[in-house]
Amino acid sequence: MTSTLIADHTGNLPADDSHPYRSGPWQPNHREYDATDLAVEGEIPAALSGVYLRNTENPLLDAIGRYHPFDGDGMLHSIVFDNGRVQYRNRFVATDGLQAETEAGRPLWAGLMERPEKSERAGWGARTGLKDSSSTDVVVHNGRALTSFYQCGDLYETDPLTLAPLGKAKWTEDITPGWGVSAHTKVDEATGELLFFNYSKEAPYMHYGVVDAKGSLAHYVPVELPGPRLPHDMAFTQRFAILNDLPLFWDPDALAKGAHAVRFFPKLGSRFAVLPRRGQPEEVRWFDAKPTYVLHWINAFEDGDEVVLDGYRQDPSRGAHIKLPDALKPFSMLDLQSVGAHAYRWRFNLKTGATTEGQLSDGISEFGMINQQYAGRPYRYTWEVTAKPGWFLFDGLHRLDVETGARDSYRFPDGVYASESPMAPFAADGEESVGCVVTFTTDMNEDKSECLVFAADDVSAGPIARIRLPQRICSGTHACWAPLDAVR
Ligand SMILES: [Fe+2]
Fold first, then answer.
1. How far is the CA of 294 from the centre of ligand 1 (A)?
2. d(CA 446, ligand 1 centre) in Å
3. Residue 55 contacts by C-beta under 8 Å, 6 or more apart in sequence?
4. N or C: which end of the chain has fewer CB within 10 A?
5. Cα gap 206→218, rounded to integer Å
6. May I ask the CATH class of domain 2-487?
7. How far is the CA of 296 from the centre of ligand 1 (A)?
8. pTM for the complete prediction?
9. pLDDT tens digits, residue range 357-366?
10. Predicted confidence (pLDDT) per residue in 210-248, tens digit
11. Alpha carbon of 368 to ligand 1 centroid (Å)
């Protein structure tokens, strides 16, 4: 391995940091590397050609008051597979917020667990007063990696191969000033479009939009909600976009006093907006469903008169017996067991207006990835993760067959944690399950990180290739795969 240290940033985190999400497997990286000629154990399939990109919170400076794991600065880690050669890189996302704090040498924005007034500057986010850390998600659109912030912020563009910063997405100059864009923008590889939404404490509380394959804003409409909401993800089919109004949001009484207390209001039920992808506000159709919260959708498609939506329904009653240690209690919403996340399907009948719903699987899981060629189309498989009880740490990977509920599972050794694990198809028009699943691990037993490659149709066989990274990387979440012809 040839490894070049590109930068060694000086932070000011406590030397003996004991925060559960800044220490151990969540200890952030402050060194940026370029590494080539990485040692490969096993065999990388010759057809694996593309880039795996992973974002995740990686704080450089100490917090003002309490630190929440969603406050940290974005850092991208990438691995490029090109004709048998493998390259790794990592870089902080060069946000305005990180630059301002680095110049000041201290944190300027208080995080999610503190009141916005504690921030020294106005900031970003639907809540307001947050640092826009662009740390949540990453997708590749129009040849560029786009990183985003879960509470809405600027979209930062990065070269997916070199990780060179390319500034902010130009098209965002054409949307409502100050609203930003939510994480979980969606790319339809078939049309080259990017679908997105944003939300705010100001009416109409949500917008939806489409960016064309060349990177211009093509569509942008309000989707009016009854009040401020906290949507995290959206879905699409070939003809429709699907947005949501779920009954987990800031308590309006507390909000009137300036406090942001997230509460569940089950009496309100869940509502789903189905609208044509280039539809107008009056074309939105709302479908009622049982109360829940959903972080991530798996996929959606059309089936006759029905729009089918798959995602991870939360049911906290499934985790009611779980007692978390004091240090983890503030982060119970990150514990998949506590929130009872499980694969679930909703069907919205466009003819009758009725919703039918039911679970796809009993097991607790989340972060489902699909063969992106099947996004918005009928599909059969998702590659999802399980988590260590109590923790935001991924301890298992499996392929779920959404038709039969069958799982093909792999469990990482104790002390080894994976990242979100996208599916990398071998061919542009291949079988859905033919390809690889790629992930980064954080190995606390051997103080190292690897990129692991699995055969997508035989996850339980374990990794078919292991690539050692130049440093142990912080545990992490959202990631994506992009084929080389989409990034060159
Ligand atoms: Fe997410």
1. 10
2. 29
3. 74, 75, 76, 93, 134, 135, 136, 137, 138, 147, 476, 477, 478, 479
4. C
5. 17
6. mainly beta
7. 6
8. 0.97
9. 999 999 999 9
10. 999 999 999 999 999 999 999 999 999 999 999 999 999
11. 11
